[in-house]
Q: What sequence folds into this?
C-alpha cells in the first residue's frame, strides 16, 4: 500500500478552449484539443478531497510567474501546449528545468508521439505492426509514394481528430492529391498518409511505469457504418452521444483481446510513456492488430473523455482514475512510501 508522507501543494497545468478566440481564417477545429473548465474542476475536486491544496495554474507564458507566486510540490499536467510539434513538451520541459515533479510522460516522449511518423518509426524498430506510411510535407512528396490503396490521410502533428473528416479515406491518386493539398493549405503542417486498415477500431487505456497494466480495451463502433470502414472523424466525435457506441470490454475472442493488449503495451514501452496513455489500434483483414498512434495526454473530461468512459465501463469511479494517475507519478518521484 502506498502511503503519502504529507499533504501536497498541487498545481494543475492546462489550456482552455474559452481562452482562445476563433478567427475566420482558422480551421473549425483549431482548439479541439483544449479543455473545458469543468474538466479542470473535476480533477481539482478529486485532489482536494484527498486533502491536497490545489492551484489552477493554467498554461501560457504567464505560467512562470504563477509558479513563482504559488510554488507547488507537484504538477498534474494536462496542457496540450501552443504551437509546433514540440508544444506538448513545453510545460514539462519548464517543470524539469525548475525541478518540479509532474504527472505523465517526459518532453521527449511527448514530442515523439505528437509526430505520428516518428512514433511509427520507433514502434516499427521494435517489430510492432503498424500500417505502411509516408510523411508528406509538400505535394511533390506524393510522387514517390509506394503505398497500397485505400489510404488514410491525417495531420502528422495533431490529435483529437483535428483534420480528420469523413472523406479522409481515399481510393485513388487524384482524390489523394486533393485531400493532401487541402490539409497542407488549411493547416500548414505536414500530413501523414498511411495504408487504411479495414477492420474494427479499438482504443486501449494503459496505466503505470515499470510494469504498466491495461485499464481496458474499448471498441469504437460508428452507428450506421460497417466496422470495416468506419472513420472516427471530427464530425462523429462532436456528436458522439448520437453517432458512437462504445463496447468495453469488447465482444471479441480472448486471443484477439490479448493480442490487442500486447501491441498496446509494447508500444507504450517502446515510446517510454509514463503514468498513463491511450493507444489506438485497428485490426486488419488478416486478423492482426496494428498500432495507429498513442496519446500520452489523453482527454480526462468526466463526461466525454475516452479514457474516463473506458474506466467507467470497467467499474472505476472517475476519482479512482485520477488518483491512480497521480499516485503513479508520486511513486516515480519517491513521494509515497
A:
Amino acid at each position: 500500500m502506498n502511503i503519502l508522507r504529507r499533504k501536497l501543494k498541487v498545481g494543475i497545468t492546462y489550456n482552455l478552449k474559452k481562452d482562445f478566440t476563433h478567427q475566420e481564417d482558422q480551421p473549425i477545429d483549431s482548439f479541439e484539443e483544449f479543455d473545458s473548465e469543468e474538466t479542470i474542476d473535476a480533477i481539482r475536486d478529486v485532489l482536494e478531497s484527498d486533502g491536497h491544496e490545489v492551484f489552477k495554474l493554467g498554461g501560457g507564458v504567464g505560467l512562470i510567474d504563477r509558479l513563482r507566486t504559488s510554488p507547488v510540490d507537484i504538477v498534474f499536467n494536462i496542457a496540450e501546449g501552443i504551437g509546433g510539434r514540440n508544444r506538448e513538451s513545453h510545460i514539462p520541459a519548464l517543470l524539469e528545468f525548475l525541478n518540479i515533479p509532474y504527472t505523465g510522460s517526459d518532453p521527449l516522449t511527448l514530442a515523439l508521439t505528437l509526430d505520428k511518423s516518428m512514433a511509427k518509426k520507433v514502434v516499427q524498430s521494435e517489430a510492432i505492426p503498424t500500417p505502411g506510411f509516408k510523411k508528406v510535407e509538400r505535394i511533390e512528396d506524393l510522387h514517390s509514394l509506394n503505398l497500397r490503396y485505400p489510404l488514410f490521410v491525417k495531420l502528422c502533428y495533431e490529435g483529437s481528430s483535428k483534420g480528420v473528416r469523413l472523406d479522409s479515406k481515399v481510393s485513388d491518386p487524384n482524390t489523394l492529391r486533393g485531400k493532401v493539398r487541402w490539409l497542407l493549405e488549411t493547416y500548414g503542417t505536414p500530413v501523414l498518409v498511411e495504408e487504411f486498415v479495414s477492420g474494427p477500431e479499438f482504443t486501449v487505456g494503459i496505466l503505470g511505469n515499470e510494469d504498466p497494466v491495461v485499464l481496458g480495451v474499448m471498441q469504437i463502433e460508428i452507428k450506421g457504418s460497417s466496422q470495416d470502414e468506419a472513420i472516427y472523424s471530427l464530425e462523429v466525435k462532436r456528436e458522439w452521444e448520437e453517432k458512437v457506441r462504445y463496447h468495453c470490454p469488447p465482444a471479441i475472442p480472448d486471443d484477439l483481446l490479448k493480442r490487442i493488449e500486447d501491441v498496446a503495451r509494447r508500444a507504450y514501452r517502446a515510446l517510454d510513456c509514463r503514468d498513463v496513455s491511450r493507444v489506438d489500434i485497428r485490426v486488419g483483414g488478416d486478423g492482426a492488430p496494428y498500432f495507429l498512434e498513442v496519446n500520452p495526454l489523453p482527454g480526462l473530461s468526466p463526461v466525454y473523455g475516452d479514457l474516463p468512459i473506458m474506466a467507467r465501463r470497467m467499474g472505476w469511479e472517475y476519482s479512482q482514475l485520477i488518483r491512480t494517475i497521480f499516485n503513479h507519478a508520486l511513486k516515480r518521484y519517491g513521494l509515497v512510501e
About this structure: The chain has a mean pLDDT of 92. The chain has eleven helices and twelve strands. The longest strand covers residues 213-222.
